[in-house]
Design a protein that fits this description.
The complex is a heterodimer of chains A (298) and B (202). By secondary structure, chain A is an alpha+beta fold. Chain A is 48% helix and 15% strand. In chain A, α1 runs antiparallel to α2, α6 packs across α8 and α8 runs antiparallel to α9. Chain A is elongated, with a radius of gyration of 29 Å. Chain B is mainly alpha-helical. Chain B folds into two domains: 99 residues, no CATH class; 44 residues. A two-stranded antiparallel ribbon of chain B has the order 1-2. Classes of the chains: A alpha+beta (298), B mainly alpha (202). Chains A and B meet through β2, α1, α2, β3 and β4 of A and α5, α6, α7, β1 and β2 of B.
């Protein structure tokens, strides 16, 4: 995200299914490529009557199954067992390191699942000791596989070298792709919301020249300033506190409406000049106690 | 002395050339020259780009072209001129053996290739072990990357400050899943918005 930009999204739980790895994903392609290559290598070692290559292929292929068994896990997002209809909305503000904001409108359950409660990793093999024994067996298989590979005939060694180089490039290409391609998050539905005057491309980001203006936009949408103290988004001086109160009062003048074109919620930004107001307040509070007031104009 | 060395060098270099060399070798040499031309072409292109200040726009292409050029030159030398080196160096009374031809290339260390490429595996290790495809027997580069002393107990979080507006919750990191869900949404939206815009235009 660009510096001092503001975005707003709404996240709803669309179904009760869990977050999973995508079935049709680049990683699946890489796995199927590896599987095909081992079948080809088995065929070649039978054709060239190379027993060592056959052992090497079998050991190195079964090794991946064993590693899969040891590392297989499922994701468990935290569930709220005691549900209460009187829980306030779980809206969340995310402040990124570059001073940009993302406002997430969601229910408290979703906010906890996604942001606050720690996720659980459930391993298929829960015991560490069993996992280590699997690792031991895998390591020995790897060692013997490599030894068998060294004793295979030249033709098969060239085939192995080619396969590994090919496979390695495939995995590096997959590693270069964005992480989101590998995850199936269809159980959450994300609806973009818009600010009046935000750009109409894929992100609907609203660009601002300063952090103060960005913060004002966020207040205009959330209509709340209590979270700012906890987030540490604004300095804690009298001038800033006053500015926040004024901003909140101004924010409550306008609401939101639904865009008839595509059904997006659009937030109206009331007429208020955050930067000018801050300058006035800083001057006002710096007046009585010389020099002790904040001069932070960012 | 010096003249003698040069003479022997020339004698060795030119020995029987080209009549004693097999035809395929000549072909190989011709291809080698073509590769070298391409390699130098690449290097020249790179300097051309630098002098035109294009490198500001495409630094990756520039550095890539240099590497490709050097790599092609290296390949050319390795595969086509090894026997030539041997001859010339033994002519100067120092005998150094290089690899003699493609057939004699030693490949017993091919096992090394099986354990290279840890980085690419580790990048997606967590999501790949979440998938059912993990059980399929297959070739896997660098399997030792997944044989760690202890398995991770959480997903990697990213930087950011997450604050609940009403709930009072506050975290100074963004959970992995939360981050991914938000990114997925934005790309979904593009299509929908374009479709909606097209509908209104009609």
């Amino acid at each position: 995200m660009q510096e001092f930009s503001v975005r707003c999204v709404e996240i709803i739980r669309a179904s009760e299914t869990a977050v999973k790895a995508k079935v049709v994903a680049p990683l699946t392609g890489a796995a199927l490529l590896g599987c095909t290559l081992s079948i080809v290598l088995i065929g070649l070692s039978i054709y060239y009557q190379d027993g060592m290559a056959l052992i090497a292929t079998a050991l190195l292929s079964l090794l991946s199954t064993l590693i899969g068994l040891g590392n297989k896990w499922t994701l468990q997002l935290p569930k709220r067992v005691a549900t209460n209809p009187l829980v306030p909305p779980g809206d969340v503000v995310i402040r990124y390191p570059k001073g940009s904001f993302l406002i997430v409108k969601c229910a408290e359950d979703v906010a906890r699942e996604l942001f606050f409660a720690p996720e659980n990793i459930n391993y298929l093999v829960p015991h560490a000791a069993v996992y280590r024994i699997i690792s031991l067996v895998s390591t020995i298989m790897l060692m013997f596989g490599v030894i068998a590979l060294g004793n295979a005939t030249n033709n098969l060694q060239i085939a192995f070298a080619g396969s590994y180089i090919f496979l390695n490039s495939a995995y590096w290409i997959v590693a270069a792709l964005p992480t989101k391609l590998h995850w199936d998050t269809s159980c959450f539905k994300v609806k973009m919301q818009r600010l009046e005057g935000s750009e109409k491309n894929k992100h609907f980001a609203d660009h601002n020249s300063t952090f103060t203006r960005a913060l004002w936009k966020v207040i205009a949408i959330t209509k709340s300033i209590d979270w700012i103290n906890r987030s540490g988004a604004a300095p804690e001086t009298d001038a800033w506190n006053r500015w926040l109160r004024d901003a909140k009062a101004a924010a409550e003048r306008e609401g939101s409406y639904e865009d008839p074109v595509d059904g997006t919620v659009v937030w109206k930004i009331p007429q208020w000049h955050p930067q000018e107001r801050l300058r006035e307040l800083l001057a006002e509070f710096a007046g009585p106690e010389k020099g002790s007031g904040s001069t932070d104009d960012g | 002395m010096g003249a003698q060395v040069v003479k022997r060098f020339v004698a060795n270099y030119c020995q029987g050339w080209p009549s004693l060399r097999p035809a395929w070798h000549l072909l190989g040499r011709a291809f080698g020259h073509i590769f070298e031309e391409i390699a130098w072409g690449w290097v020249r292109l790179r300097f051309c780009l630098v002098s035109n200040r294009c490198h500001v726009l495409c630094p990756h292409i520039c550095s890539l072209s240099t590497f490709v050029g050097l790599f092609l030159g290296f390949l050319y030398n390795l595969l086509k001129r090894t026997d030539l080196w041997t001859a010339s160096l033994s002519g100067a009374m120092v005998h150094i053996e290089f690899v003699r031809g493609f057939q004699n290339l030693q490949l017993n260390i091919v096992g090394f290739l099986a354990i290279l490429g840890e980085g690419s595996i580790l990048t997606n290790a967590q999501v790949s072990t979440l998938s059912q495809w993990m059980f399929v027997p297959r070739l896997l580069p660098a399997p030792q990357a997944l044989l760690t002393p202890s398995r991770p107990s959480k997903l990697a979080s990213s930087r950011g400050h997450v604050t609940g507006v009403h709930s009072g919750n506050d975290r100074d990191y963004i959970n992995h899943i939360g981050n991914i869900v938000m990114h997925v949404g934005s790309s979904d939206r593009v299509v929908k918005y374009i479709v909606a815009a097209a509908n209104t235009a009609q």
